[in-house]
Amino acid sequence: MHDEIEKVLISEEELQAKIHEIGQDITKEYDGRFPLIIGVLKGALPFMADVTKRIDTHIEIDFMDVSSYGNSMVSSGEVKIIKDLDTTVEGRDVIILEDIIDSGNTLSYLVSLIKHRGANSLKIITLLDKPDGRNVDLIPDVAGFTVPDEFVVGYGLDYAEKYRNLPYIGILKPEVYKGS
Ligand code: 5GP
Ligand code: MG
Ligand code: MG
């Protein structure tokens, strides 16, 4: 599997160091507020798992699954709820954890949904930000790393459902796409 990677963009060590920092910042800001942390499936799963272990105050976690891409590499602009939250967000301090913000379509939909449901506050934390891909006005409150406008995989991010289990962020060799 690793021989299908052309280049490692962000190493496991760099990811973990940044995630440690983000966890400490959440602890400081939300201590005593019992925030609701929403992970966006499936991509944010490794980020969610690692960052929550670095938070030293009570939190609640929940997940949402929305689709905008399907198996394609280009955003359709359409967002559909596949799995909704189990929890009500009304009056809660909500943190959305995302793997990557590209066009921003997925997140702008989620942001309006959470606001509409009456959250007390909302913070967007994304591991990766691809500002060049944006087609809506959306700036995350926290972005772990800025990445170039290239298709990245690993650490939750897939290509045709593969590569989510890589411990780093990388770029695939071009022949991997040709073979599919
Ligand atoms: P957006 O709606 O901001 O365009 O992107 C939404 C989702 O598309 C992300 O949460 C992620 O699942 C997927 N996505 C965007 N850019 C990339 C990328 O470079 N690589 C992979 N594997 N998925 C991406
Ligand atoms: Mg995602
Ligand atoms: Mg995907």
TrEMBL record:
Function comment: Purine salvage pathway enzyme that catalyzes the transfer of the ribosyl-5-phosphate group from 5-phospho-alpha-D-ribose 1-diphosphate (PRPP) to the N9 position of the 6-oxopurines hypoxanthine and guanine to form the corresponding ribonucleotides IMP (inosine 5'-monophosphate) and GMP (guanosine 5'-monophosphate), with the release of PPi.
InterPro entries in the cross-refs: HGPRT, Hxn_phspho_trans, PRTase-like, PRTase_dom
Provide the E.C. number(s) assigned to this enzyme.
2.4.2.8
Q: Name one GO biological process term.
A: IMP salvage
Give the UniProt subcellular location, in the record's own words: Cytoplasm
Q: Where is the Phosphoribosyltransferase domain?
A: 14-159
By its UniProt entry, which Pfam families does this protein fall under?
Pribosyltran
Q: Which cofactor does it need?
A: Mg(2+)
An example of a GO molecular function for this protein is: magnesium ion binding
Q: In which pathway does it act?
A: Purine metabolism; GMP biosynthesis via salvage pathway; GMP from guanine: step 1/1; Purine metabolism; IMP biosynthesis via salvage pathway; IMP from hypoxanthine: step 1/1
What enzyme class is recorded for this protein? transferase
Protein name listed in UniProt: Hypoxanthine phosphoribosyltransferase
**What's the source species for this entry?**
Alteribacillus persepolensis
Q: Which family does it belong to?
A: Belongs to the purine/pyrimidine phosphoribosyltransferase family.
Catalysis performed (reactions):
GMP + diphosphate = guanine + 5-phospho-alpha-D-ribose 1-diphosphate; IMP + diphosphate = hypoxanthine + 5-phospho-alpha-D-ribose 1-diphosphate
Fetch the NCBIfam families from UniProt.
HGPRTase (TIGR01203)
Q: Name one GO cellular component term.
A: cytosol
Keyword tags: Cytoplasm, Glycosyltransferase, Magnesium, Metal-binding, Nucleotide-binding, Purine salvage, Transferase
Record Gene3D superfamilies:
3.40.50.2020
**Keyword Magnesium carried by entry:** yes
